[in-house]
Amino acid sequence: MKRLALLAAVVVAVSVVAPSSASALIQIDRGIAGARLGNTKAQVRAALGQPRRVVNGRNEFGPFTQFRYAGGIIVTFQSGNTVTAVQTTGLGDRTARGVGVRSTGRAVRRRVPGLRCTASGNLRICETGTGLPGQRVTAFFIRSGRVFRVTVAFVID
């Protein structure tokens, strides 16, 4: 009986501590939380559900639509109906190696291969790729030594 109680306690402890396979994931150069670069609006809704808010606007690249979700997820459709960027400011999204919002800059540099980092004042941006138009990049925005936003996007300009 004690053994069964101990086993049950271990199972509960592991399920609370271990990340769920359904937990949100930052996929380097692919997407965040089930929204992937190149997905259609219908595919994003199928993966993430109805957005809390839909924002339409115009910027220097033309018209855009943003789907805003709980957990700090924003999916952008720039000048079309496919995902051009996904960003998160929420704590629930992590890379397979555990990097996400509130990770240290040091953890980002150690756990995400092939990054190049630039700094301007208190802001550091560490990103994959070379930044050429059409290329996929993942950018970690770091302020005061901690990640505050992660963006996966196509480079537009």
Shape assignment: globular
Strand order of the largest sheet: 4-5-6-7-11-10-9-8
End-to-end gap: 65 Å
- CATH architecture descriptor text: 3-Layer(aba) Sandwich
- Computed over alpha carbons, the radius of gyration is 18 Å
Mean pLDDT: 87
Oligomeric nature of the chains: single chain
Total of DSSP H or I helical runs spanning 4+ residues = 3
Give the uncertain stretches in residue-range form.
1-22
Question: Considering the protein shown, what is the CATH homologous superfamily?
Answer: CAP
Q: Mind summarizing the main beta sheet?
A: 8 strands, antiparallel
Helicity range of the residues?
Answer: 10-25%
The secondary-structure class comes to alpha+beta
According to CATH, the fold-level topology is Pathogenesis-related Protein p14a
Strand content: 35-45%
CATH first level: Alpha Beta
Order of helices and strands: HEEEHEEEEHEEEE
Overall number of strands: 11
Number of domains: 1
